[in-house]
Each structure stands twice: as C-alpha cells, then as structure tokens.
Amino acid sequence: QVPLKPGRSLMDWIRLTKSGKDLTGLKGRLTEVTEDELAKHNKKEDCWICIRGFVYNVTPYMEYHPGGEDELMKAAGTDGTDLFDQVHRWVNYESMLKECLVGRMAVKPIAAPKGEGCCTYSVFLQQIPEDETILCMKTFTIKCILVCPKKVYIFSLLYFLFYSYDWFQTDSLITIVIYTKQKDMNAELVIVDCQDKQLRGEIIVGDHSYLVEVDLDHAVQEDVAVNIAEKVGKVEIILKKKDNVHWKMLGQPLEGHNTFVKRVDRGLFYRKCKLVSKTEVTHDTKLLCLMLPKSTHLRVPTGQHIYLKKNIAGTEVVKPYTPVLPFLPLDFKEPFSHDGVHIYLMIKIYSCGLFTQALDHLQIGDYISVSNPEGNFKKSQVQTLEDLFLLAAGTGFTPMVKLLSFALTEVMCLRTVKLIFFNKTEDDILWRNQLEQLALKDERFEVQFILSQPTKDWVGKQGKISSSLLSEFVKRSRKDSKVLICICGPTPFTEQGVQYLKDLGYSQEEIHAFTA
Ligand code: FAD
Ligand code: NAP
C-alpha cells in the first residue's frame, strides 16, 4: 500500500463513480478493442488495461489505487489479468471499475487443434455415450484442447480416471456421491451450498478444485447433510426432497459443472450469513459471530481467510478476514470441535475505515456475504515441528489463534510455542487474559507482549520489530531443532520481520508470512 493523497480514499472513488462524470472519455459508448488499440493506451494520462477480456480506462483511478500508480502502470496497454490475480484477485474490480469500462477485447479466431494426441482424444471422446455428465465434460475438455492441446490431453485423461460423480434417490432423499479417490479427504476439503434449487458442491484437491454444479430438477429442503468416508475419499451430499416425487434427472448442469480446474481459476463463491452476535474484545475490536445457512457445509482451514462482501454506496466492496475460535481453549487434549455452523471474526473497527465502519453498523440478524476460504498456509508445515514462533502485530494475531490451538493439540513433537505480540498500548492487546492463562496452564506456551507506545506504567518490553528484539526472543529450543516462524501484521511489519529473520539465518522454509 502507498499513502494516498487526501480526498483519494475508496469512498471518494465511489463518490466520483456516482457523479455521472464520463470516466472512459467515450461518452458512455462501449467499443470493441483490438490488441493494437489496447497497446496504444499505455501512458498515465491515457491508460487502458484488460482484465478477463474486458478493457478499462484506469487513468481516472490512478490516484485512488491503494497499491500506487506504478503498480497499475505495470499493466498499461496490456492484458493485466495475471498481474491482477497475483496481487488481489479477490478485489471486485467489475463493480469498482464499472464506470471505467471501455468495452470487450475483440475475439481472435481460434486456430484448428493440432497434434496427434488431440485427434486421438477427440475420437475417444466421440465414442463415449452422451449423458448429461459426459456431455458437459466433453464440452469442457474440448474447449481446453483448443487452448493447449498436449498438456490438457494427459490432464483430462487423468481427470476422467480419478473424478466422477453419481446420484441416486429414495422416496424422500437425493444422494450425490463424488468419488475423489483421494486419501485423507476431510471436512475442510468439501464445500457445499444449496440455494434456490441450485446445488454447488466443491471438492478441494491440492491446488485444484472439482465442482458439481446443477440447477436441481425439483425443490429440496433447506438442510443439507455431507458424509465423508475419509479413507476412501468418498463424499456424499444428501438432500431432502420437498415433495416425494420421482426425479427423472439430477438437474440441468450449470457453467462450472463437472469441471476440474486450478483453484485460482475458480471464481470466489459467496453465501449470505447472518450476524448472530457482536461482543467487545478491546476498545476498538469486536468478535463477530456469523451463522452459515443450513444448506451450507463449510469449514475454514487453519491459516486461511475468507472474504466479506458488502454493497457500500452502490459499489461491492470486498475485504479479507481470518476466522478465529470463539475463545482460546486452555485444555488441548482434543482438537477443537467445530460446530459446523458458526464463523467467528475478530475485527478492528477503524474510525475512518470504509468497510469496518459499515460492518460496525450491521445489526444482529442482518446478513453479509461470506466467501469460500483461501490462503496458502498448510497444516503440514506444522505437523513435525519442535519450535513454533508466532510474530503478530495488532489484528495480525487472528491467524495465530487456530494455529496455536492446532499446534498445541495435534503436534506431538512440539516443545515450545512462543507468541511475540506487538501492539501500540496495553489497551490494544487482544485476548491478553486468555493468553496469560494459557501460558500459566501449558508449559510449552509462552507469550511476550511488546508495546510501541506504552504508558509510563508499563514494565514490560517496549519497542518495534527489530533484529535485536528477534534475536532475543526467537531461539531454537535445541541446536538444529525443526522450527517455523509465522508472521502477520501490517505489510511493512511483515516485510521487515521476514528480512530480519533471514538476516538472522532462518531459511525461507522456516518462515511463513500471512498475506492476502
Ligand atoms: P480502510 O478504509 O482500508 O482503512 C483502514 C485504515 O487505514 C483507516 O484508518 C484508513 O484511514 C487507513 N488507510 C487505508 N488505506 C490507506 C493508505 N493507502 N494510506 C494511508 N492510510 C490508509 N482485519 C481484522 O480486523 N481482522 C482480521 O481477521 C483480518 N484478517 C485479514 C486477513 C488478510 C489476508 C488481510 C490481507 C487483511 C486482514 N485484515 C483483518 C484487514 C482487513 O482486510 C481490512 O484491511 C481492515 O478491516 C480495514 O478495512 P477498512 O475498509 O475498514 O479500512
Ligand atoms: P496497529 O495497531 O496499527 O499496530 C500493531 C503494532 O504493529 C504496533 O506496535 C505498531 O507500532 C506496529 N506497526 C505498525 N506499522 C508498523 C510498521 N510499518 N513497521 C513496524 N511496526 C509497525 O495494527 P492493526 O491496526 O491492528 O493492523 C493490523 C494489520 O494486520 C492490518 O494491516 C491488517 O491488514 C493485517 N492483517 C493481515 C492478515 C493477513 O494477512 N493474513 C490478517 C490479519 C491482519 P506503531 O506504534 O509504530 O504503529
């Protein structure tokens, strides 16, 4: 993030987009843009960028871009989709930039597929009987072949071998069975939603996702059950029929049905969750409890975040938040059992914050859109650890909550967990009591509070993240012990911390930085 000039906040941008000003310079006309035309608009004062086939004039947005003008200019006059996806694919640019839309990219004719493998594969596909499943898979794979014949040939064959779904019915139930053939399938890897007859079942397979997405033949009741046979990787989605009629088919396939794609290529899916409670954690931070719909099956994995989406003054604004536990367990004998219904978010309300102010105005019973989880932290990074260090600043504490609980409960070889918690003042420390109690109760756990703006009564440690502070507090319990240092806070805090740790000799694999 770069400091923005006064009058250039997101709210100011939203106001400008609503002012009726012609932000494209095309007087509301949409145009088809060729690559040559796009390339001509590559200057700050005349800058067009293509994202997913749509071209935007981003010149008026330059001064409002939180990442700065130079970042935007990296994509000037080109297709910025990859760059956008790398940095913040979750930002709802369609809504934010809708007044800057110049038009679509002109479609280039697609070359005929080449290559032996591809032909063989097409013949192979033609021989398969056409039921609703296969038809959809064929369309998808043929589309892929046109884009990248050889790679997709092998990939799609594997997909045929490994992924399939089936369904059957009784008088009252519809059961959809997905055979993932993946060992260690678990509840965090299955996300199911069923709204207005539309069923969406997503299975996470490493960096990929498999989707069953259909407009159901008939209405179903609100509650959906999910059974997972962990060892064999079989997932059952059980729906209750609203009327005891015989279904001729499961339903009409929707766009993503029966596809197996990279997770980053699967758009974020949102469902509306009800705010059921809001409690104070500190003077400016609240614990929000959201309730998932009965028809949703979703567990947010340790170290991952979700996105909240809210319409603010006619623009859809999206911000990431990291779910926590309702409280810090003191007894780590058994894994914390998720009730499957509630998501807890610890959120700092900024007095000038666009999104958090809107969140703070939500009333109990109001709804807010919550996305599927994302994030690149893997529990396997912790599973064989001896020493775990958690460096948190402010609400950068949030990913540490589940991590702490997981490590103390499930990592058998763990010797020490040390939380080094940076805050401005004592009043800002989140869950201080709970952390101190935990340190008393569990001898593996230690907490160190460091304040950057303490009052004169503070007898504890004072300062900001620095090499000397880290060398004092981050020490292996024994020479060559297996260690992980997790860090989260304001971006400069995290970046400086990572650099100091590297300077102190910790390797890339021994450091995990939580970022968007
Ligand atoms: P904004 O309107 O963005 O402003 C926040 C404050 O910063 C205001 O005081 C504003 O004046 C100032 N500001 C904003 N941009 C600039 C700028 N460019 N230059 C100078 N000052 C600026 N937060 C939590 O509270 N809990 C969480 O669990 C949590 N999880 C997160 C997970 C991830 C992966 C990430 C990336 C962030 C997370 N955050 C979390 C932060 C959260 O996403 C929002 O950024 C935060 O809530 C502020 O949003 P806002 O719209 O209210 O504030
Ligand atoms: P804060 O209260 O402003 O700051 C907490 C501590 O960090 C203070 O001691 C502060 O010192 C220090 N600090 C702030 N900026 C610093 C910098 N540039 N360099 C070194 N130290 C710095 O923090 P906050 O308002 O709670 O913000 C938390 C941040 O964490 C947000 O930016 C949020 O986006 C981020 N976050 C990220 C994730 C994630 O990526 N997964 C999850 C949750 C939160 P000073 O007195 O000097 O300010």
From TrEMBL:
Catalytic activity, EC = 1.6.2.2
The name this protein goes by in its record: Cytochrome b5 reductase 4
CDD domains, alphabetically?
Answer: cyt_b5_reduct_like, p23_NCB5OR
Domain (FAD-binding FR-type) ranges? 268-380
- Give the family from UniProt: Belongs to the flavoprotein pyridine nucleotide cytochrome reductase family.
Q: Species name for this entry?
A: Smutsornis africanus (Double-banded courser)
Which cofactor(s) does the record list? FAD
Q: Which residues form the CS domain?
A: 160-251
